[in-house]
Structures are given as C-alpha cells and as structure tokens.
Specification:
The complex is a heterodimer of chains A (749) and B (162). Chain A is α+β, with helices and mostly antiparallel strands and 749 residues long. Helix content of chain A is 27%, strand content 24%. Chain B contains five helices and five strands. The longest helix of chain B is centred in the last third of the chain and has 24 residues, at 138-161. The chains are: A alpha+beta (749), B alpha+beta (162). At the A-B interface, helix 6, helix 8 and helix 17 of A face helix 1, helix 2, helix 3, helix 4 and helix 5 of B. The complex binds FE2/S2 (inorganic) cluster (2 copies).
Chain lengths: 749, 162
C-alpha cells in the first residue's frame, strides 16, 4: 500500500453553507422496504435546498393508539415522547431541538420525555453535530413537525366534540374548547388523532415570536438528572454481555506500518485473550495500521499495551516537523503567493499611505482534547454489525464501518450515544472504524478505548499557521490597504486542510478598498481537521489583532476604527453572509455594556474584537491587567451576540460562557508540536487547559432579533483571543502576535 | 477482594491488587459514573470519595482502599432516588455541557462541602482546581457549589429548629 489517502478529509463534514451533505451516508437503502417512498411529503428546509426532511403518513408509523405524524413525535395514552435527531456533544441540541417541536405542538415541557432518535436518513435527513448547523437546518422543519401534530390533535378533538376546529385552542398539552369550557389532554386524543391525515406542512400556520411560551426560557438539559446520578449515558459507559476490552496501538509517526510485534508475549499476559495486527485500509480517516489487544478488562489491556513492542516500517510515515515548517514560513513570508482576494491595488495603497505597519502572526497546532477519549463499542455477529458510538457523524460512521468490515451499510446499526465533548473531533470516525475492524476479528462484543495518550497522538489537529500582515492608513487615519500573506498546511497536496483555508469573504474583504489575501500551503502528513469554529478560531485572532494595530498606528480609538471599517448597514456575500449593520450593533452593545472609554485602574486595559462566523454576529470586550511578570489577569469578558431568536436561554448562555473559557484556555497555553512526525505532547500535564481559578467573569448580552436563528456551539469563540490580546496591548503596550501567548512569555493569573 | 462501595460490600474476586480503583468500579462493578479522562491525576474526571476525601481513582490502587468506604456519584442520592443538594444544584443551574467531567466535579464539591460548609470564592477555586472541564462550565460550577451550600444551611437550620 502506498502513501495515505486523505481524499475524504473535508468531504466528511457538510460545509457550513449546508450545500453538501455527509459523504458516504450509506444509509439510503436502510429501512426502505418498510415504507413506500411516495408516501413521503418532502419538506425543504431553510438551508440552500440541501435539507430534505421527510414526513410520513400516520399509516407508515402508527401503531394502535399512537400518534406518530413524523419522526419527531410519538403521543399515546402513556405520554408525549419527542425524538432528538442529532448527536449531543455538549452543545445542548438534545434539549433545544425538541423544545422547538414542543413550542409549536403546545406541549407542556414537563409532560415531554425526550429520546435520542435512531439513525435513519429517511425519517430525519442528515443527522450530525457540526458547523453550529443543528438549529438553523432544523428550525423550520421541527416547527412544522410540532404544528402538524397539533393540528391533528385539534382535528380529533373537533370531531369528538362535533365543533369547528377553528373554535379550539391548545395549551400545555391540552386541546381546549373555550365556548364550553371542555378540555382534553393530548394523551387522551392520540388514538383518534392518529387517524387524521397528516396536513401538508407548508399549509400550517406557525407562531409569531411573541406567541412563544417555551422558546427563550431557561430549560435545564434533558439528561441532567441522569448525568448527576452517574447513569451510563456516554459512549464509554456501554457494556454488553460477554464484552471484552480492546486497545489499539498505532505508529507514533502517522502512516507507519507494523513490521513485527511481540504478539506471543502479549497473548500470554494475564487477562489478554488475543492480540493481532490490522493492516489499515489506506485511508487515514478510517483505519490506520496497528496492533489490537483484546483483554478481559481495561487494566489488563492497558498493561499489555504498555508491554507491547512493535517494530514499525516508517518508510511512508510522517516526518512532520514544526521547527522546519516555521523556518519555511519565515522564508515564504517575503514571497508573494497566489491570491484568494485581490481587490483594489494594495501596492499602490502602501506606496501612497501616510503610515504603514506590518506584523508576522503565528499560531500553533492544537488538539481537540475532548474529555472523553475516543471510544466505541462494537459487536459483529452473523454478518451484521452493531455500533455504540459517541460520534458527531453517525451516518458517515455507518458507511466507514460497513466498508472495512465488508458488509452493506444496511447491515450496520449505529446507536448514537452522548459524546463527552466534540469540538469537531468526532466528525471523523476513525475510532468507530477501528472498533468495527477489531470486532470483526474478535468475534465477541468489544469496547475499544483510546488512552489519553492515543487521543493526543492521533487527533485530527487544528492546524497551525502563519500570516505576514501588512497595512496602511492615510493621513485621516483611514485604512487604505491590507495584505494577509497566509502560509497554511495541506494534507492531500491539493487544498488546504479543513479550517486552514481562507475564503474570499475573509475580513476585511469588501470593507477596505485595497485588500490582497494570499495563500500558500506546506505539505503535512499528520491529519488536520475541523476544530470548533474552523478557520475563524485563528483568523479572528489575526485580522482583529492587526486591525487593532492599524487603529493604534493611526492614533485612533479601535472601536471607532472597527465601526468605520464595517461602514453602512448592508448584507455582505450570500444569505448566510455577514450583515454589517448587525455587526455594528453587537460591537456597540459590547462596548456600551463593558463601559468602553471609562477611566481604568492602573495596569488595566480594554480590548474589543468582532467576528462573524456560523451565521453568528458576535463582539467581545475583555478587561485585563498585566503585571511586570507578564501575568495576565482577565477580569471580565463582555459578550454581545446577534444570533436570531434564542431557543434555550440557559443553554445559549452556557455556550457563550464555555466559548469564552475555551478560547481563553486555548490562546493562553495550549499547543501541540511535532518533530520527526511525532507529537511531542502526550497528556494533560503537557497540555495545560484552563482551570477554575483563572476563569473570568463573563457577561452575556443577546440582541433580540427576528433573523433566522443559528447554533451557538462555535461563533462566540473567534472574537475572544483578539479581544484579550488587544486588551493586553492596551494594558501594557505589548502586541501579541503568537498563540499561545505563553510563547511570548505571558501566562494567566 | 472485597470493597465497600456506597454502603455495600462488593466482591471483586481475584482482582489484580494494583488495578486502579477507577477500573475496578467501572469494569468489575458496573459503576460507570466515575470517568476516565487522563489516567494520570490531571483531570479529576475519575474523582470519588474514600472515607469522605476526594481521590483520583485512576491513580489509586484498589488495594489501597482497604477497609475504607468508597462513595461514588451513584451513592449520593438517597434510597428513594432523591438527589442530594449538590446534585440538585447542578440540575437547577443547568451546569453541564457535555457533562463528562461533572461526576468528578460533583464529587469534588461534595468533599469540599463536607469540610467547609460555607466556602468563599477562593475556597471553591482552590478545591475545584484539580478538576478540568473541557467545555468551560466553571462559572456555573462555582454558582452551584454556593447554591448547594446555601441549601444545606437552610436544611440544617430547619433541622435544628425542630
Ligand atoms: S482520569 Fe483520573 S485524574 Fe484524569
Ligand atoms: S461539561 Fe464537558 S467537560 Fe465539563
């Protein structure tokens, strides 16, 4: 087998614009036998025509007395069940998606039981957690699902009482006839409602925002009670009768193959039942070569893994080196590269500008470090495979598993389990694919567990990058020219890694007269991929930091310059592009709430930054102080967000707080470095995530807006690093151009 | 080997005495509330109580428990399944995001409140500093610890008044 194939990287995840769906879903022939396709009413979702959500007739799903108008709702005499379609990774969708259904259904939230749905493309369309897309892609369809069931319940009550449906109302899981004072609980009507034809979803009238009773409230997560009891919710918590415990050792330099291993010695160790080599399938995203060990318990498996000695053939393995990449970038920064954006004439702008500034920005690779290491439980039996998986892309997981095991995707069942963090890591199903391949060989149910060391060594990293920034201002202090010479990485030699490519809409394209953005990619073998707010999480730092530099170059207030650059209110790019008016709105709100311009204590500074990503307009202001030991205390972060209507206020606020903490944690001390193809960090002692004592106060302000809603897993992260770095400059005059800031000698107090 | 867990004596059979308590609980006893995060005492996801003290069960050999009483997250609620004050505060304030760290956080908070019934911000920060939350829920954890402390005070005051 030759070199690794990375062709599927980037195809795995639907792009944030929603025009692509998950590749290799493989589930299209699942369950079709049971349902006649003509019975589906196709409902086009919000986004780019990409989402098709199927409604089925009651006949297709009904059992005796249950109302099941679609895949999201089941009401019978015993209660109301709402199905959550997408993976829960901590972003809150297992609560927020059913809330959207419950709102239009007019179900009392306390009556609702939420159940994770099966993975079924016919019923649910594509199911995944990524790109902050769960809310925007499902908002309309879920509302119509709830409204359809509500209409059927009303119709059933109208029949029973012999009154006009129009004379009835609904509230808190009851149909009410105000004229006679009669009311009936949904659960009592379910059987009759099941016989009512499902209405055309487009014919339904949806609530106006001021009619919402549930949306916008603070609702505690549906799994919270089970979580605090320690119930087995997560992937890693699964057990099956007769289950064995598996570990898998891959080459420390990715792409290395097994030459030989002390398998006999390992097989003789206590508790070990088997050890064998897997060759890999040549796809770096699916199955890398390695040695599997099967044991009676985790401890035996871990000890055997420690005793394992493998001789690797590293002829095709990674030789990646951060120091070489950095040296190459240092050289390339003075050479022109192919432009992604080229408007106006930057060279002329620089030549005629009153003042010029430049800076070389660098950020390191980082790891996802989900607190739950990758794991998957798998059982291959009688030619069929069952997976219990904490994945963000179950459909893709089914496809890859079917491929390595050599069966049809219809023979694979994947049970979607709660994920102990995602951040993009579990968009890629290498761990579920490994579990499938190991289970096939093992012949018994196995739980594959990665150690933290595995997790850090075989992540799909947020790529590092380098930007040579140059800019000019005129005699009035207006920005006239902007050049971003970006040096990034490529896995496949054809396109930048996911999250490592600048798009034509990158800030400040279209906002500054002369903008040139160039992009050059260095070859890289270690896998890189989407990491929370891909691209934006680092580009925000660079462009909002350099904007601050230009404001100071001009001797102007950074807030004033930011607003001037945003300019007149207008829609940039497509429907999901930035709106400069909404942008200016959150910038002003954050500035006002943070007390921008107020007198500050000695050594304190305020920094502001705005970034648009994942359809969210978010501005943040950080207040910091810096001591003479370069210790930074972040006192407060003020967040202003315009993300459309809020579904679950508690969850939304939690995401904003978490994004601030994650952003601060990552910018402060986190980096993954590579030498000789190997990752130099192996566990949390070398990857010091932020802890409680350094956590700042976070104030969150949502703009009340009627724009289509977006998800909140990502967009609050990108403005954090530049807001803090700009505040550090304001506090002590040191311009941070490297992340993490520990590289410049700074630490968090 | 026998192990006292959540008020019961459980038999671990011929277990390797060096097995970390975490894996004895998870693999042998099916108590999967305590989580594996790092295996080297860095993250606190595996925190349980031994005789009321918070320990990192990933780095604590099962044989070291001896006659000690182990309390895991599964042992906090009372027999009727009623949540204790710490658990309830976590639900009321919707602390969790992914939730993976939270069993460890709750056990660390429980240990803190058993020794300091009225902790201030610094006490909380210090006691909770050995528990990582990758999702960044620290702000709510702080609030929840305070809420649980306040609820316990009220309950104790009510008991004393009787
Ligand atoms: S798993 Fe024990 S401290 Fe991390
Ligand atoms: S809630 Fe996810 S690690 Fe704490």
């Amino acid at each position: 087998m030759s070199t690794l194939n990375y062709a599927d990287i980037g195809d795995v995840v639907p792009t944030v614009t929603g025009e692509r769906t998950v590749a290799g879903e493989g589930a299209s022939d699942l369950r079709i036998g049971k349902l006649d396709r003509r019975q589906f009413l196709k409902l086009t979702g919000l986004v780019g025509g990409g989402l098709m959500l199927s409604f089925t007739t009651p006949r297709a799903l009904a059992n005796a007395a249950a109302l099941r108008p679609n895949g999201y709702i089941k009401i019978d005499a015993t209660g109301i069940v709402l199905y959550a379609k997408n993976p829960e990774i901590g972003q809150g969708v297992k609560t927020s998606l059913p809330m959207i259904v419950a709102e239009e259904l007019d179900a009392a939230w306390g009556d609702v039981e939420v159940v994770q749905s099966t993975i079924d493309q016919n019923l649910y369309g594509v199911q995944f957690a990524g790109g902050s897309m769960s809310i925007p892609m499902n908002w309309d369809a879920l509302r119509r699902s709830g409204a359809a069931a509500r209409a059927m319940l009303v119709e059933a009550a109208a029949k029973r009482w012999g009154v006009e449906a129009a004379s009835l109302s609904t509230q808190d899981s009851y149909v009410i006839h105000a004229g006679s004072g009669r009311k009936l609980k949904y659960t009592e009507l379910a059987g009759e409602a099941a016989a009512v034809p499902v209405p055309d979803p487009q014919s339904l009238t949806l609530k106006k925002r001021d009619q919402f009773r549930l949306l916008g409230q603070r609702i505690t997560g549906v799994d919270n009670r089970a979580l605090v009891r320690g119930d087995p919710l997560f992937g890693i918590d699964q057990t099956l009768p007769g289950m064995q415990y598996a570990v898998y050792q891959k080459c420390p330099a990715i792409g290395g193959k097994v030459k030989s291993a002390n398998l006999d010695e390992i097989k003789g160790m206590p508790g070990v039942s088997d050890a064998f080599v897997l060759d890999g399938n040549g796809n770096a995203m699916e199955l890398l070569p390695g040695v599997a060990i099967i044991a009676a318990n985790t401890w035996s498996a871990l000890q055997a893994k420690r005793a394992l000695k493998v001789e690797w053939d590293e002829s095709d393995a990674s030789k990646d080196s951060w120091s070489h990449a950095k040296a190459e970038a240092e050289r390339l920064r003075s050479e022109s590269g192919p432009p992604v954006v080229n408007t106006g004439d930057v060279d002329a702008a620089f030549a005629s500008g009153a003042k010029q500034a430049s800076g070389f920005y660098t950020y390191h690779f980082v790891s996802h470090a989900t607190l739950e290491p990758q794991n998957c439980t798998a059982w291959f039996k009688d030619g069929a495979l069952e997976l219990w998986a904490p994945t963000q892309t179950p459909g893709q997981g089914i496809g890859s598993a079917a491929k390595v095991v050599g069966i049809s995707p219809s023979k694979v069942t994947l049970h979607q389990l709660r994920c102990g963090g995602g951040f993009g890591r579990r968009l890629y199903n290498d761990f579920t694919t490994e579990a499938a391949a190991i289970a096939k060989r093992a012949g018994v149910p196995i739980k594959l567990q990665w150690t933290r060391e595995d997790d850090m060594a075989y992540d799909l990293y947020r790529a590092g990058g380098f930007h040579q920034m140059d800019g000019s201002v005129d005699e009035n202090g207006k920005i006239t020219g902007w050049r971003d010479r970006f040096i990034t990485f490529t896995n496949d030699g054809r396109r930048p890694v996911s999250g490592g490519g600048l798009s034509p809409g990158v800030f400040p394209a279209g906002l500054v007269d002369s903008v040139r953005v160039e992009q050059t990619a260095l070859p890289w073998k270690n896998r890189c991929a989407a990491w929370r707010a891909p691209g934006s999480n680092v580009f925000g730092f660079v462009v909002q930091g350099f904007l601050d530099e230009l404001a100071h170059l001009a001797g102007r207030d950074p807030l004033e310059v930011l607003l001037e650059v945003l300019g007149e209110p207008r829609q940039m790019g497509g429907r999901r592009g930035m709106h400069t008016g909404r942008a200016a709105g959150v910038v002003k709100l954050a500035a006002k709430e943070a007390g921008w311009g107020r007198e500050l204590p000695d050594g304190h500074g305020l920094g502001i930054a705005f970034y648009y990503s994942h359809a969210g307009h978010i501005a943040e202001v950080a207040e910091v102080s810096v001591d003479d030991q370069k210790q930074v205390k972040v006192h407060k972060v003020t967040v202003a967000a315009d993300v459309g209507p809020i579904v679950n206020l508690s969850g939304a606020e939690n995401q904003m707080q978490g994004s601030v903490v994650d952003g601060l944690s990552t910018m402060t001390g986190l980096s993954v470095t590579f030498e000789d193809g190997r990752v130099e960090q192996s566990n949390f002692d070398q990857y010091p995530m932020l802890r409680m004592p350094s956590t700042p106060e976070v104030a969150v302000h949502f703009v009340d807006s009627d724009y289509p809603p977006t998800g909140l897993g990502e967009p609050a992260l990108p403005p954090l690093a530049p807001a803090v770095c700009n505040a550090i400059f304001a506090a002590c005059g040191h311009r941070i151009r490297t992340l993490p800031i520990s590289e410049e000698g700074f630490s968090l107090a | 080997m026998n192990l006292k867990v959540n008020g019961e004596v459980r038999n671990l059979g011929e277990i390797d005495p060096l097995t970390p308590l975490l894996w004895a609980l998870r693999d042998e006893l099916g108590l999967v509330g305590a989580k594996f995060g790092c295996g080297i005492s860095q993250c606190g996801a595996c925190t349980v109580l031994v005789d009321g003290q918070a320990v990192k069960s990933c780095s604590y050999p099962v044989s070291a428990v001896g006659e000690g009483q182990v309390t895991t997250i599964e042992g906090l609620a009372n027999g009727d399944g009623e949540l204790n004050a710490v658990q309830q505060a976590w639900v009321d304030l919707d602390v969790a995001q992914c939730g993976y760290c939270q069993a460890g956080q709750i056990m660390a908070a429980e240990a803190l409140l058993r020794t300091n019934s009225n902790p201030g911000d610094d006490d909380i920060d210090q006691a909770m500093a050995s528990n990582l939350c990758r999702c960044g829920t620290y702000i709510r954890i702080r609030e929840a610890v305070k809420m649980a402390a306040a609820v316990r005070h009220t309950a104790e005051a009510a008991d004393a008044a009787e």
